Amino acid sequence: MRKCLPILLLVAVACSSGSTTTAGSSSSSKIRVVASTSAWGSLAAQVGGDLVDVTSIVANPDADPHDYEPTAEDARTISSAKYVIFNGVGYDEW
Length: 94
What we know:
Blueprint (H helix, E strand, L loop, with lengths): L4 H11 L15 E7 H11 L3 E7 L13 H8 L3 E3 L9
Parallel strand pairs: 1-2, 1-3
Helix pairs in contact: 1-2
C-alpha cells in the first residue's frame, strides 16, 4: 500500500484541483485519466468518482500486461490524458 500512496495522492489532488476541462476537449467537465491496467483504472475511478473519465489501456483484468503490445491508438489515448497512471517498476514497460 505504501507504494500506492503517491498515486492515490496524485489522483486525489487532480480531482480536487478545480479543473473543469480535459485535454483536447473543452466541453467535458471531467478530468481525463488514462491507466495502464484495469487495476489502476479501477483505483482512479474509485478515488475520482464523477470528476474523472478513466480509460484503461489493458482493460481486461485477466490479461497479462507483459504480453500486451501497445498500438498507435493507445499512444493517442495517452496523449489526450491530463493524468496517466502506470506501475513505475517495469511491470508495464511499454
